[in-house]
Amino acid sequence: MNTMHRAKCTVLWMSLEDRYFPKAPENNVLDVARIEQPPYIPPILPPSKPAYPESRQTVTTANHLSESDFSDDDDLTTARSVLDSRQPLSQPRRARRVTFYRNGDPHWKGVNFAINNKRIRNMEALLILLSEKIPLPYGVRHVYTLGGKRLTDLSELEHGKSYVCASGEMVKGVDYGRKTERYWHNRKPTAGRRRGENYLYKEDPVDRISIDSRQSMMSDQLSPRSKPRVITIISNTHRDSRGKILLNPRTSQNFEDILRDMTGAIKMTNPPIEALYTFSTEQKVQGFGQLFREFRDCDIFIACGSEALRRGPPSSEGYKSDTHAHVHHERPAIKQSRKTQTPQTQQMNGYVSRSDSGEDDLPSPPSEAYRPRRRSVQSNATQTDIDVDPKPLDDIGDNSMDTSGAQVSDPYVSTPIASEDDVVRMTIHGRRQTFFRPTSYDKTYVNPGSRPSKKLKLEWVYGYRGYDARDNLCVLPSGELMYFVATVVVMYNPRKETQRHYLGHTEDIQCMSHHPSEQYVATGQMAGQLPDAHAHIRVWDHVSLNTLAVIGLDTFQNGICCLGFSKQNHGQYLMAVDEGDNHVLSVWDWQADKIVAKTKTHPDTVVLGAFHPHEDSILITAGKQHMYFWKMVGGKILRDKKSGVFEGEKPKFITGMEFSAAGDVITGDSSGNILVWSRDDNNIFNLQHAIMRAHEKSVFTLRMLSDGTLLSGGGVDRKLVAWDSLRGYIPAKAERQLSEANGGIRTIVEQNAGQADGLLYLATSNNLIIQGSLQTKFTTVIQGHSEELWALAVHPHEHAFLTAGYDNHVCLWSSATHKLLWRVSVEKPCLSATFSPNGALAVVGTTVGLFVALNAYDGSLVASFQVGTEQLDAIRFSPDGSLLAMGSHDNTIYLFSVLDDGRTFRKAALLKGHKNFLTHIDWSSDGRYLQSVDGDYELLFWKVDENRRENPAVTRDVTWHTQTCILGYNVLGIWPARENGIDINTVCRSESGDLLAVGDSQGFLKLYRYPSTQKKAQSHQWKMCSSNVTSVKFLYDDGYLLTTGGMDAALMQWAVQATEGINRNRAKRY
Where is this region: Disordered (predicted)? Predict the structure, then answer.
């Protein structure tokens, strides 16, 4: 992080405690109000040292700040110069040498400072200098004594004393200054150092009195010939985490301190290490001397924190371990040592000692390639098949939070657990997962890995892709509007309000062209991330929807920039420009599937391309700082370098192109200019007319009407302007400006070509299609979201659903009429949404920790509440509607009580235990339990009434009200994903409990049988888009499935239909 800081920092430090660490409210009732966010205060960290990698314990309050509240782009140099320029208020005194430690870190060696008024004149300057030396998340803001008193003035520093530097509250109970032990020297003590004084060089700066007693206790018990040894420790709660420790028999530390120093070598749920057990016999190590005597042959030990020791799993001989037995506060030591233990006893405990097998018997460390969920890093970690490898469970007994924010213990529930046959283990993206089979599960009931007895049929596509596309709207002879969204070409009849779909593409469509006969259509798709997802062009009949030709499967790179049919030879040729580095222009005889000619165009972006309407041998391409004219001669394409020469500076982009009836080429550019290029007697296209500053910026589209009127559409100014081409392109005194909600104009199409009614369709950058004219008002025909869309919720008892997007819009739709019922704007981008059980309230979570409650019938605001500063990734009401659970990006689940019909929300509890941001939450049907998944693919269970984590084996028979969590026994059949590196984003179980819809990061929509408990279960699948399928939801009656996703905010509705000839037995619901 940078150490930049403005000069104003000299006055900011004076009131940090009062401004950013206020006292918590006396009760937990928080009124419905937006909490004002604090201004940004930059952290001050040295450029050569990164921020401390893990957060320390802090006192949690309602106004506790997160790291995202601060930035690091201020100028520290300026601040220091201002501080140093101050004049001291008194004469310098003798320097005081003090030591500073880092808050919450007992292993920090400390930084020594000589404090004098000449070098450090005030407390603010000291804090800045300390921030350079001691990395803390928000810089050093406070200095405390070891007793916890906060210092406010330099005069309080005493010579020879030690202090603690912190960003917020000091973490107490930490033995500050406990340096890591230097266990041995490679040489004997020097002549100037006596052996009896060696302990002085290993002294504890906090407690110097007990060193002699520690040394006598440790050293006198060991043989003088004892040598250092290396042991391996394995975490009791994370059996994949291990570390090697080098032990010095002559150490002066006591056993408890040694165990505490070992803690940093492994990952633990309840640090620090409080006990060691031998790996093979599970005998407790009572003292340091035993490691060199009784257990000198043991090289592997299990390290336990405050939790009880977990034994190994049962062996094939049927021995039951106590992995799932009742909790013991302290496990009694086993009297039999390893020397006298028989091979049978070793096998019974489920392990083989190191003397019989090497270190390869230890579990491998976990993969570090975890995918941070949302938004949008892909994982390359390998997913392995399901197995029954008898390895102990992953982390279960973490700490949780009570309603006051204080940590409470999380003991195992004393419930008998099933045998190993009822446990399934698998690895998902590097994390070892353990799932418990329900006790009532019947393996013979139905094949859990077979395809479901139902399938999906696309019924409706909401919205339009206009934010990054051009010329992707046309009117068919039938009066249908044709456009594309994601992988689908939509043909919408505005009179009958029906849709037809061409579904031949497997990746997002980028461009299209209408054949001169008006019967055929060419569409080009981008290349996908899978090996067989090639960029290509499909030519098809829009009446029968039959594919006539597939072109360029092995030719195009990345995608297709633009397409165009030739005009004079009745569309025999098709031109295309690919998205490769050289942007190759190719001309195809599409019916014969062969290239007629091709050439490289320009290394920079190409956005436009077309045949000249009067001569098929002339082609034009344009894009970033270029417009090229080409001539096709004898199977070659040659550039006409004399045509298209700009007078003066070239525009940054050519953004629009059209042709006049006389054959003139008309272009619009990013500077708002419209240029007309005419051909002279030498067949050279020269600049003939120039309309400078016709629009404020880019001219995205141009359309020449049959009466000679040229229409231009602007992006930034949102203006539709008419120009008279028959009178030298003078303004026609007809102009309309669209509202900001409509966005800029991307495409202009005549409703009735050749007629003088002036009716138009306009496609806009906000993904709208509107109709009207220069003389009449424009009305909306097609509308949708204009930015990323992740939030989707279905009404509990009506054919309606709600969407909320990054465009700050919340929309309620009717699935029966496909109409928008209402649309409102909120303050921030939206990420999650849910309905109350009675359907009267809709709650939306935003990217800044604000949730908004709306009246579900008209969209009016009911309440809003600021939960924190991180985005709310998941929101879910309890089945009875009394509680609202929210999973945040700050790794916390917030529980709110819902009062006064949703008008009041009261914070009820915080559930902490996840180590990454929350992604999915489900309630049990009785409202007693929660299950949650985070970005590291960790599945946790919670006992809601006790505000603590629950043993996953206890919840094996819990009936879940919904199934949106992507992990669990009933959904293990969807893992591993379709290919390694593909992530599952969203799942949804049908209300009837027999279907499971799944959406992944490659745009695949899949339909499984539920429960899906067989590895690599079969499914029906469809390619919806090229990027993330972000959400899937069944309507309350299971008649339809709603899906969202893609870069163009695609929203699709699928009919759920029966499949002929497939067994229709329903699976059980769990």
Answer: 309-413
Supply the pLDDT for residue 969. 93
Question: What pLDDT is attached to residue 691?
Answer: 93
Is the separation of the CB atoms in 713 and 722 below 8 Å?
no
Sign, CA dihedral 18-24-29-30, equals positive
Residue 819 is encoded by which pair of tokens?
Answer: 């109409």
DSSP state letter for 978: S
CATH 3.10.20.230 positions along the chain are 9-166, 213-361
| Confidence at residue 223, expressed as pLDDT on a 0 to 100 scale | 52
Reported as type and span, the H/E element at residue 84 is helix 76-84
Higher pLDDT among residues 202 and 138, named by residue = 138
- Secondary structure letter of residue 39 according to DSSP: P
Looking at CATH, the fold of the domain delimited by 789-1058 is given as Methylamine Dehydrogenase; Chain H (2.130.10)
Reply yes or no: is the peptide bond before residue 952 cis, omega within 30 of 0: no
Omega prior to 1011 cis, within 30 of 0: yes
CB atoms within 10 A of CB 252: 23
List where CATH 2.130.10.10 sits in the chain: 789-1058
Q: Per-residue pLDDT tens for 748-796? A: 999 988 787 889 999 999 999 999 999 889 999 999 999 999 999 999 9
Q: Where does the pLDDT of residue 1067 fall: very low under 50, low under 70, confident under 90, or very high at 90 and above?
A: very low
Residue 686 contacts residue 643 (beta carbons within 8 Å): yes
Could you tell me the fold of the domain covering 9-166?
Ubiquitin-like (UB roll) (3.10.20)
Q: Three-class SS of residue 426?
A: strand
Banded model confidence at residue 52, pLDDT cuts 50, 70, 90: very low
pLDDT at 342 over 50: no
- DSSP character string of 363-409: PPPPPS-PPPTTTTPPP-PPPPPPB---PPP------EE-TTS-EE-
pLDDT score, position 446:
58
Q: Which amino acid is at 1013?
A: T
The residue-averaged pLDDT of 976-1001 equals 87
Q: Which tokens hold the place of 511?
A: 């461009």
Calculate the CA 520 to chain-centre distance: 41
Does residue 312 contact residue 277 with C-beta atoms inside 8 Å? no
934 strand-pairing partners: 918
Give pLDDT, residue 327: 32
Please determine, for residue 533, whether its predicted confidence score (pLDDT) is greater than 90: no
Do residues 132 and 43 make contact, with C-beta atoms less than 8 angstroms apart?
Answer: no
pLDDT value for 313: 40
> CA-based diameter of the chain, in Å?
109
User: Which tops the pLDDT comparison, 240 or 469?
Assistant: 469
CATH number of the domain at 213-361, out of 2.10.10.70, 3.10.20.230, 2.40.100.10, 1.25.40.10? 3.10.20.230
Query: What DSSP character marks residue 219?
Result: H
Measure CA 6 to chain center. 33
Residues, the chain: 1070
Long-range contacts of 568-571 (CB under 8 A, 24+ apart): 568/613, 568/614, 568/615, 568/616, 569/616, 570/516, 570/517, 571/515, 571/516, 571/517, 571/520
| Per-residue pLDDT reduced to its tens digit, 541-577 | 999 999 999 999 889 989 999 999 999 999 999 999 9
Q: Do the bridges between strand 789-794 and strand 779-782 make them parallel or antiparallel, or are there none, so unpaired?
A: unpaired
Classified as helix, coil or strand, 149 is coil
Residue-wise DSSP of 468-521: S--S--EE-TTS-EEEEETTEEEEEETTTTEEEEE---SS-EEEEEE-TTSSEE
Bond from prior residue into 363 cis (ω within 30 degrees of 0): no
Q: 834 - beta bridge partners?
A: 843
Q: What angle do CA 776, 779, 783 make, to 5 degrees?
A: 155
DSSP letter, residue 351: -
Q: How far apart are CA 559 and CA 542, in angstroms?
A: 23
| Torsion sign (Cα): 533, 539, 543, 544 | negative
Q: pTM of the prediction?
A: 0.64
